[in-house]
Specification:
Helix content: 40-55%
Number of domains: 4
CATH architecture of the largest domain: 3-Layer(aba) Sandwich
Shape: elongated
Number of helices: 32
CATH class of the largest domain: Alpha Beta
Strand content: 5-15%
């Protein structure tokens, strides 16, 4: 046969006849004359028909199951079969079922005997009376990925007399990691493929197909037409339909069951018993369907987090959500989880249909946790329902639904206990006591500060910025001597090479003290690192009532009024050009500190490149365990935690979109990030930098020519002068400090403490970075930051009270 001739014989999906798109089989009962004639014509006119006749085997099986107490021999079985037939020829007995889509003609027992024999092995898991009750029940399934497994399991058990199935999609090859069907069904509507599978299992089961899926127009028909559903099973991907289905089901008092295919979660809402119950257990508040209709997969993520429960996701599922629309098109589902979930949902639906006491709630049958190593706690309690009808906090599994260790991943539940000192921690006694003896003697003529003046000066000092708002300062005042000490325990991190970042913060704090003292009418003399070999004592201050030699100049005094206004602003804005007068003022502020310099990136190509580099640096930081831990200990995840600790960065200050916020919360768990790292993923972690720089007037870098601690201290003063200048001019500042400090450890520390993969990434980024900025390995890179116009920040970082940071005697 030539290529042309066999190609002409292939029938493509678009060429299929109307009959092949159906799902209902045809029944022929030869004891009826008309059926016998139609059956004869089918066999004569359609050569494609293949006959499957096992009626004798079915009859033998039937009579054996009706005599369970006896062991029947072949002759006795044959006799009982003949008695049962009562003279009807075997070819005419029962029903012939024709499946047009496969051209199979199958000889079966008729409905009553077929159902009796097919459900015989259900006894007494399902009693005869219960089987009869289930025959009168209607179950609707929306969504036929997971839903196909639910529907087939319901059909297997015959735990409903009618199934309504809905899905608007056609079967694709990528669906077949979890949908049990044959490749011949590709491009066939999912409802049709599912209905055919059910018909081939049980041709007498009533199936109604909604090939357009369910929507606002046909949802009432799906729930009510031909009799109200007894149970609705939600397995659809459309979040607006999930909400609308529940709203309508609640109105009609129809219970809803859902399987999520993650950690074996079965969700039950007994609207039949609780008509006022909040939908989805109140997890989405009063969210309306129209608000989320038409969202992209990525934008659905925060709502998926609300529905499934942020802290109860499996590690793999959470990690994959970070890869949605990056390396995968949508969230994953495994065949084993779908089959398991389909069975669990069908089992739950059956027990509801039988009136068993299934309560509303969330139930976890997490096989990965239950079936584990010998150290795992036994999971005998998994089958026990929750202690109350409505779990008080649905986002956390009921205590008895899964083993205690499974309920909330420990790494996610709370920040590590050692992340920061506890709230209202007094100054560390050892450091404070040692500090007093290390202050230089007061010079003759220096004034004593009264308590209120001292408080005002130190309050100005602690208003300075610090990396991660760690506030690494301890202030000690005695007999006219004020010392600023580096509390290294607060700023210590892998990113802060040799404590340089902490010293920058102390330099900024010192600048504020000088400005505040000038506002008080005092002259100030600042001595950076006044004791050789003592790196903890960062600066000593002396105050005078009149000008003295060596005192600080007054050129920047006008910046004092901006101290209380200065803050980080991460808000997004449209890009605008940096005005010449602003550029000049910022440069002058920085260069007023000897050796300090300001470099600006303003060209679109430069901004695009630095955004890519910053994003890659953020990704590297989150995918390396030590820097991930350092970053997570900076975050305060609730307003209450932020208010109690008064350090770190409140999550709300990041000004994230709901989608980005959901993603950032996923990043909290190192186990999740470790999976992303091993997969070579994490592209989504770079998006925040691109968004931030997209609205920049410029990205700026402040440098000092050398990289000693004294240089970083002076660089901190230059940084504060620039930031206060920007504040006075209405320019928002957003530090983006990862790269300079990553490079400091790479260049001057040989990458010590960094894993090999991060070292390689940093080296590659450094090469590109050097094409943007004029720096050498000897340069101290004080801070990289964004300048923009932006609306006021939603929140500002808090400061620890003076009682925690000031020792005065």
């Amino acid at each position: 046969m030539t290529t042309t001739s066999w190609q002409q014989l292939i029938s493509h999906p678009s060429q299929r006849d109307a009959e092949s798109a159906g799902w209902r089989p045809r029944f022929f009962r030869p004891t009826r004359e008309e059926d016998a004639q139609q059956l004869g014509r089918l066999l004569r006119d359609d050569p494609r028909v293949r006959v499957f006749d096992t009626i004798d085997r079915q009859l033998r099986d039937l009579v054996k199951t009706r005599h369970p107490r006896r062991t029947l021999g072949d002759q006795e079985i044959a006799r009982l079969v003949e008695e049962h037939l009562r003279g009807v020829p075997r070819l005419s007995y029962g029903v012939w079922v024709h499946y047009p889509w496969s051209h199979r003609l199958v000889h079966l027992l008729d409905e009553a005997e077929f159902v009796e024999l097919r459900t015989n092995r259900n006894k007494y898991k399902i009693s005869a009376e219960e089987q009869a009750t289930l025959a009168g029940r209607r179950i609707g399934v929306v969504g036929l990925s997971v839903g196909q497994s639910v529907a087939l399991t319901v059909a297997l058990e015959r735990s409903a007399g009618e199934l309504r199935i809905a899905d608007f999609d056609d079967l694709e090859l990528s669906n077949m990691n979890r949908i049990r069907t044959g490749v011949h069904n590709l491009d066939v509507p999912k409802v049709v493929a599912t209905a055919r599978d059910i018909a081939e299992l049980d041709p007498f089961l009533e199936v109604k197909c909604f090939s357009e899926g369910v929507n606002s127009d046909n949802l009432e028909r799906f729930l009510l037409e031909g009799g109200k559903l007894d149970i609705a099973v939600d397995e659809c991907d459309s979040l607006d339909i999930k909400l609308e289905l529940r709203l309508r089901a609640r109105a009609h008092r129809i219970p809803v069951v859902m399987d999520t295919s993650d950690r074996g979660l079965i969700d039950v809402e007994r609207f039949d018993l609780e008509p006022d119950r909040p939908i989805l257990h109140g997890l989405v508040g009063d969210l309306r369907p129209e608000r989320i209709r038409g969202l992209s997969t990525e934008d659905k993520v925060p709502y998926v987090m609300q529905i499934i429960g942020q802290d109860t996701l499996s590690t793999r599922f959470a990690a994959t959500l970070l890869e949605v629309q990056q390396t995968v098109s949508t969230w994953p589902q495994l065949g084993s989880a779908v089959v398991h979930g389909g069975a669990a949902a069908a089992d739950t639906a059956r027990r509801i249909a039988l009136g068993e006491p299934v309560r509303s709630g969330r139930y976890y049958v997490d096989l990965e946790q239950i079936i584990s190593g010998p150290e795992q706690e036994p999971a005998a309690a998994v089958a026990t329902p929750p202690a109350s009808a409505t779990p008080p906090a649905v986002a956390t599994p009921p205590a008895v639904a899964t083993p205690p260790a499974v309920a909330t991943p420990p790494a996610v539940a709370t920040p590590p206990a050692s992340a920061t000192p506890p709230a209202h921690e007094p100054p560390r006694p050892a450091l404070a006591a040692a500090s007093l003896a290390r202050l230089p003697a007061r010079e003759a003529g220096a004034v004593e500060l009264d308590r209120e003046r001292l408080r005002r000066l130190v309050e100005a000092g602690i208003a300075a910025p610090s990396g991660g708002n760690c506030q690494p300062w301890l202030w000690v005042y005695e007999a006219g001597r004020l010392g600023l000490f580096h509390d290294r325990a607060r700023s210590e991190s892998l990113a802060d090479f040799q404590g340089a970042g902490g010293v920058v913060a102390l330099g900024a704090a010192a600048e504020n003290v000088v400005l505040a003292a000038h506002r008080e009418g005092l002259s100030v003399r600042v001595s950076p690192f006044p004791r050789d070999g003592d790196e903890d004592l960062t600066a000593a201050f002396e105050f005078f009532g009149a000008p003295v030699s060596g005192a600080e100049g007054h050129a920047m005094d006008a910046l004092a009024d901006a101290i209380g206004l200065r803050h980080t602003n991460r808000r997004q804005s449209g890009r605008a050009a940096l005005a010449d007068e602003h550029r000049e003022a910022l440069a002058a502020a920085v260069r007023s500190v000897p050796g300090a310099d300001l470099q600006l990136l303003e060209a679109p190509a430069e901004l695009e490149e630095i955004a890519a580099l910053i994003g890659a640096g953020d990704r590297a930081r989150l995918l390396a365990q030590r820097t991930h831990a350092d970053m997570m200990k900076e975050i305060r995840w609730t307003e209450a935690e932020a208010a109690a600790r008064r350090d770190g960065i409140f999550i709300g200050a990041f000004e994230l979109s709901p989608s980005d916020m959901a993603g950032f919360r996923i990043c909290r768990d190192w186990r999740t990030m470790d999976l992303v790292r091993r997969w070579g993923g994490g592209g989504a972690l770079e998006k925040s930098a691109h968004k931030a720089v997209a609205g920049a007037m410029a990205v700026a870098l402040i440098t000092m020519p050398r990289a000693g601690l004294a240089d970083y201290f002076q660089g901190g003063r230059a940084l504060e002068r620039a930031w206060l200048t920007a504040t006075q001019r209405g320019i928002a500042v957003y530090p983006m400090a990862t790269l300079p400090y990553l490079f400091a450890r790479l260049v001057r520390g040989g990458g010590e403490g960094m894993d090999r993969e991060t070292v390689e990434v940093a080296r590659a980024l450094r090469e590109r970075y050097l094409r943007l900025f004029h720096v050498t390995d000897a340069t101290a890179e004080i801070l990289l930051f964004r300048l923009s116009l932006a609306d006021p920040a939603s929140t500002r970082s808090l400061r620890r009270p003076l009682e925690e940071v000031l020792v005065a005697r």
